[in-house]
Amino acid sequence: MHPNLAYHEHPKCIDVILRLEECHRSGFINRFFGGCNDIKRELNECLTIEHQIKRRKNAEAAGERRRKVEKLWKELEENN
């Protein structure tokens, strides 16, 4: 399964999402016999890369917030 495929949430994967949706619209038989599997794998790879980038950015932001908090604590300890 994949997450909600809202275009605004996955800007780097829009082309793959559109191809998968088109493949799914092409009919049940095509989906049933794995006609969309390659596109689905490509989408999974794209979403994984996107998730890794997002996770890296979040970790960097969390590290920066942590450094600010530690600096404030250090200043408070020095003032007391």
What report would you give on this structure?
75% of the residues lie in helices and 0% in strands. The protein is mostly helical and 80 residues long. The longest helix has 43 residues, at 37-79. The chain has helices at 14-25, 28-32, 37-79. It starts with 13 loop residues before the first helix and ends with a helix. One of its GO terms (cellular component) is mitochondrial inner membrane. Keywords: Chaperone, Disulfide bond, Membrane, Mitochondrion, Mitochondrion inner membrane. Belongs to the CMC family.
Q: Secondary-structure element order, as H and E?
A: HHH
Provide mean pLDDT, rounded.
Answer: 91
Low-pLDDT stretches: none
Cα(first) to Cα(last) distance is 54 Å
Percent of sequence in beta strands? under 5%
Total number of helices: 3
Share of residues in helices: over 70%
- CA-based gyration radius: 21 Å
Structural class: mainly alpha
Name the shape in a single word.
rod-shaped
By DSSP, the count of extended strands is 0
